[in-house]
Amino acid sequence: MARSHHFHLDAADHSVTVNIYGGHPGLVELLVDGKETSHAPLHRNRPQHVTGELPRDPPLTVTIHITPGHGTPRCAAVIDSAETLMPPRAF
User: Fold this and answer.
1) Helix, strand, coil: what percent of the chain each, to 5?
2) Per the count of CB atoms within 10 A, which of 5, 8, 47, 87 is most buried?
């Protein structure tokens, strides 16, 4: 993943955004309601997982699964055991 990719999903009354920055070293960041909640180095050509929380009572875990591929990677959010594909977003 040499270039940047951005994904967005509205889930459980919260905004979930994933930014993937290519390059060396790359970075994956997870934003909930516009605030960074987690980040991790980008592992080229390997699946990536990033975990954060949605601010609820009790907090709800959100796990992001990123699968690299040709072109745009696949990005899915797992919230409350349900996986939802995150659509790409223009930045």
Assistant:
1) 0, 60, 40
2) 5
Which amino acid is located at 76 in the chain?
Answer: A
Give backbone dihedrals phi and psi of 69, rounded to 5 degrees, phi first.
Answer: -165, -175
Number of other CB atoms surrounding residue 20 within 10 Å: 23
pLDDT in tens, 13-33: 999 999 998 877 789 999 999
CA 58 to CA 81: how far, in whole Å?
15
> Is the CB of residue 78 less than 8 Å from the CB of residue 86?
no
For the chain, domains (ranges, CATH) are 5-85 (2.40.128.180)
Q: Which two tokens stand for residue 39?
A: 């980040």
Q: pLDDT tens digits for 61-76?
A: 999 999 987 788 899 9
Residue pair 51/63 in contact by the 8 Å Cβ criterion? yes
User: Is there a contact between 26 and 44 (Cβ–Cβ < 8 Å)?
Assistant: yes
